[in-house]
Each structure stands twice: as structure tokens, then as C-alpha cells.
Amino acid sequence: MQTRLLPILSATIVIAVGSMLPVYAAENEPTSTPAVHTELVTKDQATHLSSSLLLQTTNNKAVDLVKEDIKAKEAAKKAAAEKAKKIAAEKAAKEKAAKEKAEKAAAEKAAAEKEAAKKADADQQTSAQDQNQPSGQTMMMEATAYSSDPADALGGGSITATGQNLLENPMAVAVDPSVIPLGTRLYVEGYGEAYAVDTGSAIQGNIIDVHFSTAGQCEAWGRRQVKVTILG
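-> C-alpha cells emitted (232 positions)
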């Protein structure tokens, strides 16, 4: 029985194995690799490509340089304008200061010349009066001034103690009669010739008070020491 089954079993195994080989072969067949398409570049094309890239890079740098140059020029132009504006302002300030200084100097010079001319005129008048001064007894006295001007709060009226009308004859001197008798003809330095025709409560001792027509003349006279000559 066993001897008869062996051939059958062997045949069955062979058939089974044979039927399995195609399937195994199909399952283990190597998978095909996809084709890779590679394009070859020639030397000239590579050179051209490199040149193009280099040119593009150079152009970009050139554009950047142009932009930087424009920016630098604009900054320089702005700085130059600001500098010019500052210089112009400083120049204008100096010119203004110089003009003001010149005007001030001119005004001071004019005022000094006017004052000098005024003093020279006063000195000339005094000198002329002194030259015409007749000889006689002299004394140094303190001289004040008064006027018949209504604007003068200290004015003593227009009629003197001796009755002289000051509006008609303004040349008059108030004296202390105990020192200079009324009616005495006098020559007062800086004032001129006049008569002692008036008195005053403040005129005591070695003091005289000369008359002027206006309060302004009295203020200009002020209070001073003068030489008084007794003419008679």
C-alpha cells in the first residue's frame, strides 16, 4: 500500500511545485527603475548662463550704487543749502549790528557836537559879557533864578519891589538890601547888566536871584557861583 502511494505523492508534489514557480517568479520579478531624463548643457551655454548671472548681479550693484550716489548728492545739497542759509543769517545779523552801532555812534557824535556848540556859544556870550564888564567893586555870590512866567510855581509876579515891570524890562536882580542896596546897578557874570530892584524871603546874605522871562531859562541857569560887580 505504501509502495503504491509514493509515486502518486511525488507526482503531486512535482505538479504543485511546478504550478507555484510562475507565481513566485512573477512576485519576485525586479521592479523596473523609472527613467531619469537628464539634459546636457554645452560649454557655450554654460558660459552664456554664467555671463547672464554675472551681468544681472553687476546691474543690481550698479543700480544700488546709483541710488546711493543720488541719496548722497541730495544730502550734500541739503547740507549746502542749510550752510548757505546759516551764513546768510549770520551776515544779516552782523550787518544789522554794524548798522545799529554806526547809527548809535552818529547819534552820539551829533549830540556831542550839539552840546559842544551850545557850550561854545554860552562861553562866547560869557566872554563877550566879561570883556564889556566895567571895572568896580566885585564879590563872589551865589546866584539862583526866578521868573514871571505863570508856568513857574515859584514865580514872583511881574512887578518888582521897586515897581519895575518885568514884562517890559525883564533884566532884574533880587538882592538882600543889607548887602546890596536897592537901585544899585550891577553886572552879574553870565547874566549881564541889571539893577537890584527886587527882594525875596530866601534872598538873605551873600545870595542874589536873577530874573528870566521863562521857567525853562531858570532851570537852565540853576544855582551857581558868580562874580558880581558893583557899577554904581
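Confidence is low (pLDDT under 50) at residues 5-17, 19-26.
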